[in-house]
Model the fold of this input.
Amino acid sequence: MIAELGHFALILAAAIAVVQMVVPLIGASRGWRGWMEIAGPAATAQFLLTAFSFAALTYAFVVSDFSLRLVVLNSHSDKPMLYKVTGVWGNHEGSLLLWVLILTLFGAMAAWFGNNLPPTLKARVLAVQSSVAVAFFLFILLTSNPFLRMAVPPLDGQDLNPLLQDPGLAFHPPFLYLGYVGLSLTYSFAVAALIEGRVDAAWGRWVRPWTLSAWLFLTIGIALGSWWAYYELGWGGFWFWDPVENASFMPWLLAAALLHSAIVVEKRESLKNWTILLAIMAFGFSLIGTFIVRSGVLTSVHAFANDPERGVFILMILGVFMGGALMLYAVRAGSMEAKGVFSMLSRESALLANNILLAVSCFVVFIGTIWPLVAEMFFDRKLSVGPPFFDAAFTPFMVALAVILPIGALLPWKRARLGKAMQPLWAVLIFALCCGALAWTLQTGRTILAPMGIALAVWLVGGAVAELWVRSGKGDATSKLRRLWNLPRADWGKAVAHAGFGITFWGVATLVAWQSEDIRVVQIGERYDVGGYEFELRDVRRVEGPNYLSTMADIAVFRDDREIGMLDPEKRVYPVAQMPTTEAALDIGFFRDIYVVIGDPQQNGGWAVRTYIKPYANWIWAGCIIMSLGGLLSLTDRRYRVAAGAAKSRPRRVPGAVPAE
Done:
């Protein structure tokens, strides 16, 4: 009965979405206030009904209701409770319902916190947001109904994919969807602005918090996915340029560009057309990612479905919303007159360069991701585009971005002098070059990658510190520290995010350049050396888990003949799913990770063992966490809260401080 109520709530939410899509749009065009005000309650009702539907599906998974087809295919009575709950979105239908839930949540939040928006703009934003919801309600009800019943319910289910039974991947999809779907609201703001034919500073101020929140959630989601791939898949890497990894990375790049571009619209009323286009394309790449994950056209360990019918439906959604928005953009672009003018050397130019680098790098990733499909369709050739292409084609844009960021952050608006902007950065530049030279010396002439990455990382972190110091104005150290404490949180957030980007730069460069890898057959009781550490395989035993059988090794780790730890890598087999998984064992340190994987038994009685020493591995994810904290700090700045778009009072200015962005 609860499942039927959930299905009915989903249908009712779809009907309300249709009303919200049509009525406020007509009201905004005719100036009928009552019709426009329908959008707010409709958005709230739509969200509540979808939340009830999602709760009903979750209840079916928790109580193991095997009369539901989806529960049978993705759950089992012996599965731990955490994975019963996460099994709700560990499949195509359930994850799509989560997508719709988050879509309606963002619509409802725009209604709740958008009271300072002009009534016509708010009505149009909510109507456009609801039009996206209508498309996905139709998709889920017509092709992906999660509430289908079984004619003859089985005694038990077929279990969730064992690779998904992991805490990291349990929380990865919700955060990723919050980012993916959050970009739908920036799309709605862009299309609503095109309908009105007006983009101004207030629009830039309204759209920034939504872009920032989407970027923040995408950062967390991508980091969780990378961390899961690192320790769960057993291959020892953190990023493989897999099509589905790329599908999440491309919107992140465009969201970062949009976030910086919206600053120019807000502060200088320039780059309006470009910002609108970025808002459209960022959500468009989210839809492209949805197509890649759910159509089966590209093979990936992350793919949810392999169904051409669903792929065609998503392509139709992509065509309607991207094609319609771009046509509207072509018609209205001429009315988006830029008011601010700026010289070639200015903060506007630096932010534009930032945008171009991020957008072109996204295009490079897109070409590499989609090219195998294009080659097969049009040239009848099977090609594989792997990490060597992406590393060579993508890295130069990130290097250029890292070089520009600290300088651009200190350039004034409209017109600047490079010499003056570089004054606080000369010491940082010299220190960064010295760190790179030291790294080159210590590594005895190996690849340039690590020294370059270290120099750029120090440049980024030092540049963020220098920017804060400049923002604190002139005076003695005490007054500067007081002004630093009172700086707007957005300034602190930007500096923290840029510093986090630098730390990730350090982690990626040093890990790729300096890691040690060893693959060998090891007998029980045998010792071997890797990267200055000794390892001893002491035992291999059978262990029974709650819903799996495990082959677990005990490997002691020594440094200078002193035992410093015991690692227990596993190979698990899930009997219900009939699927093995590899569980790497990690000894996590501040400066390095020790990473061990147990393989298959060999004919001579030994075991295949892979061992890695990974320097600064966790700096990659620490940098992502710091970037996310920077985004969170900025979101708490009252100037950029969702409802602050037309705030009556200006933010308090700290006497003696240098103006912020």
Notes: Residues 174 and 221 are 8 Å apart (CA to CA). The radius of gyration is 27 Å. Confidence is low (pLDDT under 50) at residues 642-661.
